[in-house]
Protein 1
Amino acid sequence: MGLPSGITLLYLLAAVLFIVGLHQLSSPRHARSGNLVAAAGAVIAFITTLFVLHHSALNLILMALAILIGIPIGAVAARAVKMTAMPQMVASFNGVGGGAAALVAIVEFLGRPAGTTSLVVSISVVFAVVIGATSFAGSGIAYAKLQEMMRGTPITYPGQQPVNAAVGAAILLLGVLVVVAGIGVLGLWLLLLLALVLGVAFVLPIGGADMPVVISLLNAFTGLAVAGDGFVLGNPVLIVGGTLVGASGTFLTMMMSEAMGRSIANLLFGAFGKIQVGPETAASGPRNVRSGSAEDIGTLLAYSQRVVIVPGYGLAVAQAQHAARDLAEALEKRGVAVEYAIHPVAGRMPGHMNVLLAEANVPYEQLKDMDEINDSFKSTDVALVVGANDVVNPAAHNSPGSPIYGMPILNADQARNIVFMKRSMRPGFAGIDNELMYDPKTIMFFGDAKDSLTKLVAAVKAA
Amino acid sequence: MNAQLVNEITIFVLSVFLGFEVISKVPTILHTPLMSGSNAIHGVILVGAMVIMARADGPLQLAVGFVAVVLATVNMVGGYVVTDRMLEMFKSRNRKQPGRP
């Protein structure tokens, strides 16, 4: 059942556009056109496919209906989502892709007379179903954690490891049975169910702060499931498209976890085997923190030489990018040098914070990478931490027992003064206490990031 | 092993190497858009969903195929649109900063 050569060549063109697009996506100057090039590849693949479809009026009408339902859902969701919620949006798009890949394999298997599938096709079917469904369920949990529909901290329980191992073993056994013993359709549905369980079990013990890496990994999974479908259907564009994402996604996952200073294994399985314990500092009871008024802090800022703003997810949630820029401009008018220190994983994803600040037209030169700025905190009068937490937590340097130990952080603790803006004393996304809040050099300023920054702008102007 | 399978395996293996090579040295700020863009690329599963739905036989296959086409369409359309929105931000910044300060 080879494809006509014209069709194959058009699929080749689509595959080339995917490759070129992906390549351009990795350079800042061409990224946007890269995405459009890849989209053009998708359109060509779509149109080409219309010519190879078996003609059955009912099926085609229903298919058109399904596409017409899918387009507005995807487009509206992607248009309406707030920039802060991008990570969970990507997670859900990835999840539905994985789900689709699993279902495609199932339908194809259902449609073939028993005993007529070759070994390679059976293996590919099992692979696509398992990986696709795992990605679907795992993305769902990642979405729920990021959307704060469930607890972001790692969820562990006694016996978690044996349970997960048992699910994994059952999938393997069932997969082999489907392939060699031809237990067929029922086995495949059961496999789908078990893979969904595996996806959930896999993501539950991973903390919310590590979700971006998990989404990236699941993205690679979906790619591989799509490639598996390519083998099932004998379709080259699925093989190339899926494999490209599988391989580049794996590479990207490694780069991301490197940016967080963690190994993938530690990040994925770090929480296994230990039951959640409270932070070590919890035992010492309530501790003193110093908090200040807007006027105090405004005066401190206005008479500084150099201020470094450390933005975090809280800033994004409060939509405070513009207020932060207003404050920076007010300070610059008084001759204060202002820079932004951007942690590689500030926000909820690598690069997330750059996007948010660019949206507020913060000049590019003021955004400094961690490596660029870390040495200059010593000569900084005020480090203004806005809605960030884990990325300035000195525990990453000082307490080997901490879950974030070893993660590169911004050395805000070396500044002469630290102003810590926060909604409450609640711990950050990683769920651990931050020593910096108790530092004698630190002044806490409680409140919504946007309100607080607006107050500071007024205080600076009045000072 | 038939010729078609050999071809497919060839394509697969070459694509693995290509996938690793094609995105080397990505700056951190592009990690998120790149993930989102590659997420859109695997939306090509729509092609597979269309093929199986067109030849689906009976209500069960048709129903499952229908769901697969909807999901795949959401992945493809949403993926490209959301990536474009992310990258829009980069463009506006570059336009504002044409020269060196």
Protein 2
Amino acid sequence: MSDLPKPLPWLGVVGVVPALDAAPAPSPVLSLPAAVPTPQAPAVTMTAAALPAVKAPGAWWGRALEGLRARFKPRKRTGSGLPARAIIVWLRNARRVSQVGFLGLFLFLLVRTEFRGGFAGGATVRMPYPVEGFLLADPFVALMTFLSTHTVYRSLWWSLGLVALTLVFGRVFCGWICPFGTLHHFFAWLFPNPHGATTGSRRVRANHTHAYQNVKYYLLFAFLVAAVCGSAIGGLFDPICICVRAIGLAVLPAMNYVTAHTLDGVAATNVRALQVGSDVTRDALVASVLQPRQYFFHQTWVLGGLLFVVLLANRWIPRFWCRVLCPLGATLGLLARHALVGMEKDHAKCTDCNLCLVDCQGADSPQGGVKWRQDECHGCLNCEVACPEDVIKFRWLPNRRSTSLAQQDLDRRKTLVSVLAGAAVLPATRTSDTLDSNYYDRLLRPPGAVEERDFMDRCIRCAECMKVCPNNALHPALLESGIEGLWTPVLIPRIGYCEPSCVLCGQVCPTGAIQKITEDQKLGNPARHVEAIKIGTAFYDQGRCLPWSMATPCIVCEEFCPTSPKAIWVEEVDVPDRHGAMVHVQRPHVDPRLCIGCGACEKVCPVQDRPAVYVTSVGESRSRTNVILLETGTYT
Amino acid sequence: MAADPRPPRREVLVRAGKALGLVAGASVLAKLRLDHGGWRVPGAEGTREVRDYRTADHGGPSDFAVVHAQGVPDVGAMVREALGALGGIARFVSRGDVVVLKPNIGWDRTPMQAANTNPEVVAQVATLCLQAGARRVVVTDASCNDPGRCFQRSGIWARAHRVGAEVILPAEHRFRTMRLRGEVLDEWPVYRTLIEADKVINLPVAKHHNLAKYTAAMKNWYGTLGGRRNRLHQNIDVSIADLATFMRPTLTVVDALRVLLRNGPQGGNVDDTRRMNTILATVDQVAADAYGCTLIDQRPENLAYLRMGEARGLGTTRWQSLRPRELALDMHGGVQRYALVVPEGSTEVEVARRIHAGRVVV
């Protein structure tokens, strides 16, 4: 039934829309079969034909200006031209502000996921606020790790807030908050549709509900089943994880690179004023968004390339990621079916103008005559703002009869297959050799990382640890720990060693794959009988070591060895050089009982390409089997 | 009448002119930018690069001052007395100077571990410079460990900031490649923040070094270099001498309040340190190390870099020739001063022992 408010008090104010006088206003109760044809198109052609002397704006900037003017011109409302409710227009604008704000907040936290130090800081270094907040509020992460570990790690209960929000308002996270969603919203606007159509039928067709939107639910089921079996591999597809990973490890370092090289080029001109300008700019950028040095990440082009592909996909399917793949969106979609706020449609009034579909984000069938899919709706409110016939209304506790909440028409067989696929993840990946029988010797996990199987239970590949690492030591593994370990953190000492007093990776880890350890636990404290955490053991390649094989003094490794007493000890010897002259050198040795595997020695070894000292994972505290010494291993 | 198929003369001339101009321009460009090929690795010949920040000596009362204290030392008083013995800070810092202080902030260690310069020493010297009218006092170093961590956990960032000094952390763009033309150090990235100054004050910490045995003043200039410093250790003594040749500081103030005796230069264990409550101020960095090494029972003649520094004319290991002054501060802050009397014919180590013995008699 129609509950159209009769007086429409705001009509007097907003109602003087050009649409009303442009087109003969049809009665709102009249249901037209199709949109009123716009008279502009033929009119423009006629004018152009009648006035051939008038030059079309030829220059590119002229056309751009024209386009901008057209964009900001108040558009005429078609159909009956009923304006949207003021509150909805206001909320739509609030949604835009919220999107920009949350994207900004996300980027701020991401850029701040690093330690810079400060004059106010003391000897204990911690992040001053939860830079990983978006992940803590992520119910997909919480659910997945709950299924794999049967616990909710520390602040992951924050995600209940988002569950509550979704139960009340539906998937507003996707439309109002999600930084990845906002990026897709923006890129779907930037590349509207193939073949240059910015509006109209192609866009409407793209925004109809499609069967492929169910893929994300099948993916979600597969990931949850994999989690039950013991693998948090679904983190690969979590949108927040992707944002941190791709932006933090690929986009920001690339920006750093471009800026640095541009400003270095400016400084290389040897013009004093330009150099000063370059320095000042660089100082300001380094103090705000850039890093003081270039960070390099292992095979990061894969992350950047995938981000590019996913963003480009918006050209064919608007918000491809959100509609088709996002497992967080699917989680929220399942919850949104019970939302308290929803849509009412007055099907009788719909003229099938399809304006609601032009900017629909979720492809949730807002148009009249079909069932609305609340589980797909992002709550962007574009449909209600666009509707000229007063068909669409978002309401508190809506009358469900008018929309008859659609069920996900999930195929039972496909669901079964997805469950089986999730169950197959573990046997498929773990019968490969890396985890149980053939350790990859360079798989160094961050300090505080739990045992490898537990690690796979927890690690969601969010890359927070890699972003926060002050020495650029942590990197996304490609295939180092098998295909299952894709983009899990691996420490590459040659790029950066593990800073002895640093415990930040554990602090930002949202799931406890890296535990929140203290400095005492990391370095060991004999006074309190705390043993240091070992992540591996260093070994010498004596054929490449200067004092061992080239009669040349060195021991930079010993100098950098941070343990006390030092794990690297030196043997004082006089060795002959090729002419028989004796050279006094100090030959380094490793004491495996003291070595913590931090990799400082490997990092600073002057044998540049393949260092003469290197760390392998053997002896790591977290493993009971990957051991060398009898006294440190308790085999179970 | 058929039109003449040939282009008009004017156009021919214009086109010919353009073609000629193009060829001429390209030839000039090719001539200017002609690549003769080959490896462009010029040798290290030529005069050594030197950054000399020394002030013209207007004859202070002394060029070498040592201050000892007992118990919990009043570092401010010690620094003031040490510089006072040299003639006061005004001898070194003029109004409007940009003064760069170069403490050792190399390691992620706390002050108790004595791997970095004591923050109180840095703060006191910075205060004196500001009082002398310095326009800017910059505190910086190119650390070995993560700089943010070294600056913060050493306590130097907080203390220097509180007294009004400017703390600058090393960043990639603040290094620029220079030809040092040293014996082993030629082309290296040099930390510009350190050398872009009117006055540079060296503020090392005295400590054990496993390879160079003892290091403080001269080795502190490792912090002027960026790049991969790990190669320097293959010839550490010449590297130190090269760097000390490049950097000639206005003043050197050595922090020996707590001295790392073993496991240097990084240490990490308070048990490896000993409280010595000594501050040393001098204009001669070679003399500073010649005296300082005796604190950890080393002898100047064992330190090759000191011999090289002396041979290069950077200073003297015979600090006794610098009109030394030694002061002992008692616990109540009162000052007893006495000039050191060097007996004729005594060896340097004997003199040093006398000083150490004298330290306990306050």
